[in-house]
């Protein structure tokens, strides 16, 4: 079934092109997120995909150099940055179990005394950002510096319009933050935390940027300059959390179809990791009812089928 | 960190022995399940572990040849047997998402109209058994034949005392079955289904037996006699479900610590799969508060750390 | 606003006639319950209403002498019969708080360890029937004898077809009973209990019968023959539970609109009590989405508005 | 059982004195609320009780003239003031069903799209305050003016220390308000609303003040100066909501034991209404685990038993 008997890097380009052709012929792309204007305006027919090898070489197809709104994808990087500093004490403040509920549910938060189930639901990401902000004094700046460095793209930045829009529509995240604060699980003032959080969500980056920025997870924790961000064990752990919790209430389905650690955002992007081998990023703004890119997940599904590159 | 620079098979035996020594020195083993007498009587200091290579060679340590009550571990085999016959239509009757709730909760079943979240919570396993029984006329017999054949141990059998105990304490499973029947998601009469289900849970087998019987999942669907039970894609899918749903409400933690597809049972056993490489089974009857073997999970954690064999 | 400046009994007949005329002109009656054929076949335009004074004198209008399926209305009588025998120890096995959830939810049962919230949700009624059956050896027979005696209608009986239908569609009640049994909150074998329960639900009676049979609650516990069934305090308590829990998830709305203790059934009947003054029974088979008779509740609303007879 | 064969007003004083004596001899008073210092400092042995007749005559015993923190009791008055202005459109923004859950739960709010179950849970009271504030420009001021006028006590005021304390510990109410705002169910800026809300909770008043201020509900909507605040039907409705929802998750138990519309506050006060007859207010700061005054509920229970004055 696999068209690549050897997994040599040169073979990625034809695989990506074949996938892009198949996606092109596929009707039905879902709908862009509509809660803020900047996302709602996206054309659901846009599609880009990139693969980055361990040495940073990137292959791409379609709109792979087009910046888009990363949204929840940045939760992976914030988690890695805080885990690198704080280590296991983080897990006293956020769990690492799948939520089994829509991604911004308050229910389990209440039953579990203000400790979010995992770092990738909104509540959990707020906690991680809060802790990174306490440790660095500028969580969003820390994230941006990391993304610029790993992607090799110093032009990466926050999208002020998106950040302002998120803030204007951020009542539910404000509720989550206040609620966790009522349990003593938030250190910073809620308005400060929300500002940090919404700026992180607003980072604009391309498939090429994100595939490159993710390679430290395929390199077992080693950054692009050869320094270590995470221990081998921590890198494995972040991958594990991506696999079990990275795609909202569809993590089981994603693992079943794609079989790779992955993280999606409502901007239509998805990153994925083949440990020890490569990383991927795909973008298409149309979402399914669980908030994941329709064409993006389909493309990753095809990639693992065509290459046989799955963790299972 | 890994003591095996090559992953040659000969190296498994010293790894197992080192793990057994470490476990032996570790205090605290949890408590055996106490809802039926046969399980409550188990000594929590018992410990066995086996590794089976793709060709069926088995290495072991401690009580690795001692039969124990497999309990929920058999849910993996029943799932594979039904999936092999039925294919994707199974997924109209059971989901494949982590439950995010204790393993026999009725709550999500109600919110999701009688469709259990995945095949490894009790409700989901009842549905799979029901469907296999409809297709074969003898779900438990089919399971037993498969386990005997794959393990190479024709002496495997049901433990009548355990099955009778399960039945006597089975009010909650009866409730689940009647409840799903009220949604039209059960075909067979509830008493018939429960009898089939409790017999499956009662199978007694050793670590050696189960490690061997699981190798079809490491061989991408190929049985011990070279015939194919599952397609490569289906084998990947079963592994994915084990990783995301195999250890009750601790699947995230298990993925984080062990990083392998695994399935536990309240008898204290845990099976795990290193796709393309080997399978493992560990047994120690003392459980943590989420129903997983304390020493079993610790041993698998050590195994992946020492060998570097993780999917991440 | 009230048309009765004195609440003399003679004035009830014109009130009933005025209400019947208004109801006749009102379009929209909801839909009959459709889970069993005997109920689905009812004409939603049927309407009957009766008022019984403390001395048993009954006034009526429309189909007030037409027997219908009492369904959950009998839960009031079973509660009174068990409370009379058992006293306050009943409350260790069933609560007396509104459920805040649809009437056959399993959710709260799980959170509250098998103790149903109140005697009028299905789970609670199963517990009360179970306990009455343990005390009398024939809960359904006890209920029927009481209804015949209080209504003065010895022809009252079970509807065997309805009871058989209920049993055939009783999977959810079976689930509830098994679930509570798993917590040790059911004494009798589940099949025995279900048979008793479904027979109670099947009693056929008219508005006249039920208005008369309910008068012991308006007479503060005194039966029609002058003997005491309940203490004054117990009668007050049963009325309180009817007000807070008698109309499924619409108890607040019923209290708000009608302002009387009441109990509805999915057969379209509703009984209500004006303590110290009279009782009412209304019947119209069309239900709203919460299971209460549309015309029945409207008629009671009009009655309290026209007469000023409300507890508030 | 009743010691008052006639319910003449002169008989209230000996009833109150008998109750105070009985309460005095009763050990166990629960514990004061401890989430803000001003409440935690209260002596749980304090006890006061007052009865106000329809003409404003007040009888009292114990600490009946001692001001205490009214807390949630003021929710009744805010509801009446908004209902008087807005009428039934209020019910599109807040329900009138018992919550069946602890008093500040977020769960049902999520399941019911930001519409709180009733006006007496915190979420519902926030909505009512928000709406009254929109209509008057000063919800708290409106409330205070009403309480001063009806109680005849122009010295009533806000307790600034309590209001500040509430605000400092108000993270959970902030979460509720932001959460409802995310559903579009809050008009005013959340900080403005919270300030209004916490000031209302901080009103200090005595049993005498509150019993008098509540008499409009016993007079079917007529204020002390003879003007009408609520229609007869609206007054009945407020009483109905008090009965079904007025005492947190213990409304069923309160109806069962006391049998009167009532509203409690975590300051240890409880008001109750005998429609057409009188009103009561009792205060004792020790609370049970559901947030209701232990001695307060016991005293009301005794009052209805001794006088026979219950709505049932």
From TrEMBL, chains A, B, C, D:
Keywords recorded for this protein, A-Z: Acetylation, Hydrolase
Q: What class of enzyme is it?
A: hydrolase
Q: Give the highest taxon in the source lineage.
A: Bacteria
Which Gene Ontology BP annotations are present? glutamate biosynthetic process; L-glutamine catabolic process
InterPro entries membership? Beta-lactam/transpept-like (IPR012338), Glutaminase (IPR015868)
Q: What is its EC number?
A: 3.5.1.2
Q: Which reaction does it catalyse?
A: L-glutamine + H2O = L-glutamate + NH4(+)
A Gene Ontology MF term for this entry?
glutaminase activity
Which residues participate in substrate binding?
Answer: 72, 122, 166, 173, 197, 248, 266
Protein family per UniProt: Belongs to the glutaminase family.
Quaternary assembly: Homotetramer.
Q: What is this protein called?
A: Glutaminase
Gene behind this protein:
glsA
């Amino acid at each position: 079934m696999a068209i690549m008997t050897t997994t040599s890097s040169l073979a990625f380009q034809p695989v990506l092109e074949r996938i892009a052709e198949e996606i092109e012929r596929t009707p039905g792309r879902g709908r862009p997120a509509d809660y803020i204007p900047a996302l709602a305006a996206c054309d659901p027919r846009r599609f880009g995909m990139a693969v980055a090898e361990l040495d940073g070489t990137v292959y791409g197809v379609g709109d792979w150099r087009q910046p888009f709104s990363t949204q929840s994808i940045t939760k992976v990087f914030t988690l890695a940055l805080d885990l690198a500093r704080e280590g296991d004490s983080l897990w006293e403040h956020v769990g690492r179990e799948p939520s089994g509920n829509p991604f911004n549910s308050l229910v389990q938060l209440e039953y579990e005394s203000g400790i979010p189930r995992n770092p990738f639901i909104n509540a959990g990401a707020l906690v991680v950002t809060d802790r990174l902000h306490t440790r660095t004094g500028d969580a969003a700046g820390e994230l941006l510096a990391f993304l610029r460095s790993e992607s090799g793209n110093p032009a990466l930045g926050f999208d002020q319009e998106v950040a302002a829009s998120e803030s204007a529509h951020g009542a539910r995240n404000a509720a989550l933050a206040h609620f966790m604060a009522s349990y003593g699980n938030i250190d910073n003032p809620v308005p400060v935390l929300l500002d940090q959080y919404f700026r992180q969500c607003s980072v604009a980056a391309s498939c090429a940027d994100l595939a490159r920025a993710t390679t430290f997870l395929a390199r077992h924790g080693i950054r692009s300059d050869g320094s270590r961000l995470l221990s081998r064990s921590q890198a494995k752990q972040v991958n594990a959390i991506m696999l079990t919790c990275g795609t909202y209430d569809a993590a089981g389905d994603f693992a079943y179809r794609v079989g790779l650690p992955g993280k999606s955002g409502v901007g239509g992007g998805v990153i994925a990791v083949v440990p020890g081998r490569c990383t991927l990023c795909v973008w298409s703004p149309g979402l399914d009812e669980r908030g994941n890119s329709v064409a993006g997940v389909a493309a990753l599904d095809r990639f693992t089928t065509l290459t046989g590159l799955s963790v299972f």
